[in-house]
Design a protein that fits this description.
It comes from Sanguibacter gelidistatuariae. With 412 residues, this protein is of the alpha/beta class. Helices cover 35% and strands 19% of the residues. Helix 1 crosses helix 3 (80-101).
């Protein structure tokens, strides 16, 4: 089963997506998600100029060998661009293999370990009233677990608040669904960690008082704290029994998590910007985290992320795969198949795509009763409508950045 065609398709229905489509000599097709939010064209060039020529004529069944070839033959290894490109190839090959077998992909990964996947949604508000309305809206959609993000008094616009005002070109778009705002330059936002640390515990106290002790609540610190600040927040949130505190520090400094662990029992989720198992070696081995946050799309595909999660499972660390709307329906389907099959599934992030995206990507996965399931069509269960995709050309868009009150650049 030989790969005789490889296409890199860029489309921007509700946001920019990069999709690799492989076709074999017997007519089977496979899709892979190569989207890298705010740097999409870097992956397009890597795929088009360097990877596609290496795929033509290769045996589509040789998934592990192809993965190792693309990783090791480049010499310059790792990094988000390289690993997103490899991921797209890997997922497309798994899609083809499962279609050839006439099975949904999760069956080739060992079969289902559960009936469905618990998912969490993103509730947010600039004020408590707005936040409460958002929580209720997510509960009405069936979400059993909910991430809580709140505005901070004195700060104009911060990460994760749906009602943040959009810039020209993004009017009417939920900010938390698409923070990469369209335009020639990235948007500048403001930040004050001390104000944030004072305010967030009061938000969780109010949410628990309003919605009770049973709802699993999550929060994303989005890399903005020093280790001691993260430790302080984790400890102050302990009375509110969080499901997890995500990305509390910039995770490049893995030893920082030792300090956080010493001061709080709040569970920690790390890794959405990690790309390989080498990013995780220390923090898994030392049990410094509780959930692996990587996406199939950015971490070398199903082949590599499954190896990371198998390693994590030795230490009772679970999956919490990245799943905002910059993961295309192709990447989401891949995460669902992997999550259904592994033993140490924890929770799946799930932000629902817009109508135009759902028209470009025809999906068989389903959302019922607060649970996700990838469906039972052969392969991933997602097909790309090329004609529909062609209606939405790429649009320049950047993620925002943060400055402190004195003008210093800060992690966003």
């Amino acid at each position: 089963m030989i790969i005789d065609k490889a296409e890199v398709i860029v489309t921007s229905p509700d946001r920019n997506f990069v999709t690799l489509k492989l076709t074999t000599d017997d007519g089977l097709t496979g899709l892979g998600d190569a989207t890298l939010n705010g740097r999409e064209l870097a992956v397009v060039a890597y795929l088009t100029e360097h990877v596609v020529p290496l795929l033509l004529g290769r045996d589509a069944h040789r998934i592990e060998d192809t993965w190792q070839f693309l990783y090791r033959s480049a010499y310059w290894r790792r990094g988000p661009v390289t690993m997103a490109a490899i991921s797209a190839v890997d997922v497309a090959l798994w899609d083809i293999k499962a279609k050839a077998a006439g099975m949904p992909l999760y069956q080739l990964l060992g079969g289902a370990s559960r009936t469905g996947l618990m998912a969490y949604g993103h509730a947010s508000g600039k004020t408590l009233d707005e936040l409460f309305d958002s929580v209720r809206a997510h509960q009405a959609q069936g979400y059993q677990a909910i991430r809580i993000q709140s505005g901070v008094p004195g700060l104009r616009a911060i990460y994760g608040i749906a009602s943040n005002d959009g810039l020209p070109g993004n009017e009417g778009v939920r900010y938390d669904h698409e923070p990469a705002q369209r335009g020639a330059l990235p948007a500048e936002e403001d930040w004050d960690t001390r104000a944030y640390l004072r305010h967030i515990p009061t938000v969780f106290e109010a949410v628990r008082n309003e919605f009770g002790p049973e709802v699993p609540l999550l929060h994303d610190g989005h890399h903005r704290m020093t280790p001691i600040q993260a430790a302080k927040l984790g400890k102050s949130l302990e009375p509110y029994d969080l499901f997890w505190l995500e990305d509390c520090t910039p995770a490049e400094n893995q030893e920082a998590l030792r300090l956080v662990r010493q001061h709080t029992t709040t569970p920690l989720a790390i890794g959405e910007i990690f790309n390989t198992v080498y990013d995780y070696q220390q923090i898994i081995r030392e049990q410094l985290i509780d959930y692996v946050r990587s996406a199939v799309t950015h971490t070398g595909g199903i082949t590599h992320l499954k190896k990371i999660l198998d390693y994590a499972g030795q230490y009772q660390i679970k999956s919490g795969m990245h799943g905002p709307t910059d993961i295309s329906p192709v990447g989401m389907a891949a995460a669902m198949h992997l999550g259904l099959a592994i033993h140490n599934f924890g929770i799946q992030e799930y932000m629902q795509h817009g109508e135009r995206t759902n028209q470009v990507f025809e999906q068989s996965y389903r959302w019922e009763g607060g649970m996700l399931h990838p469906g039972d069509k052969p392969g991933l269960g997602v097909e790309l409508d090329v004609d529909e995709a062609g209606k939405y050309p790429y649009a320049t868009a950047y993620l925002p950045y943060n400055r402190l009150a004195d003008g210093t650049m800060h992690d966003w």
